[in-house]
Amino acid sequence: MIHQPLDFEKPICELEKKIEEFKQLSASEGIDLSDEISRLEKKVRKLQEETFSNLNAWKIVQISRHPERPYTYDYLYLMFDEFIEIHGDRRFKDDTAIVAGVGMLDGNRVVLIGEQKGRGSKERAARNFGMPGPEGYRKAMRAMDIAQKFNMPVVTLIDTPGAYPGIGAEERGQAEAISASILKLAGLRVPTIGCIIGEGNSGGALAIGLVDRMFILEYAVYSVISPEGCASILWKDQSKAPQAAEALKLTAADLKKAGIIDEVLKEPPGGAHNDFKSMAQTIKNALIGSIGALRSVSIDELVKDRYSKYRGIGQFRETGG
Question: Whole-model pTM?
Answer without folding.
Answer: 0.92
